[in-house]
Give the backbone structure.
Amino acid sequence: MVPAAPRRAADPAPRRHPGGVLNGIWGHGGDYQTWTDYLRRWGEEGAAGTREAAALLPRLRQEDYHHETWVRLVNQLTAAVDRRLRSWADALTAALEEAADEFGAGRALVQSRTGLDTIRALAAHPSLPQDLREQLGKLVAGQIVGLQQQLEDMLNRAERGGADRQFIDGRRRTLRDNPLTTAGPGAAAAAPAPGEGWSYDPAGPARRRIMTD
């Protein structure tokens, strides 16, 4: 009688990783995808960055991601902020060019703060880690101060070029009386929806490019 072959032990079940863990580490799907999709719309289209969409963004923690993935996400954040700041600056420059008088220029400066409020709101989003919020906040603040100075420098160049002195003095007073560094009315509360107070989104894509030099 031939002895029965020994029974082969069952292979151990393959180790499975929760999809959300791996996706989070390597940046596929999940919270990472939610943020990257939002940032792409917010940075490129402007009006897509609504208050409702921002309220649904999941909390991000650096320790949940692989280093390279976290760096990519931070780069996308800063790139989106930069795109919106550039679009906002173009829109403001166009509005100032079109202003019929200093009242219109002052109104454009005050209204432009709405667009800055939406950018500040993303930089300070509660779902971002505190250190990242601080970095983005400094980036935004520095860009705003820089643009204020650029507007003054443009007037100085125009003055040296022989522009009307009365216009230069009036526009300089308007700029200084309505500084961009002052937060808009929506900054203390929830971020306003893009375009609120404007006939178009002041932080969205510019309608036309204005050459300042």
Q: What stands out?
A: The chain has seven helices and no strands.
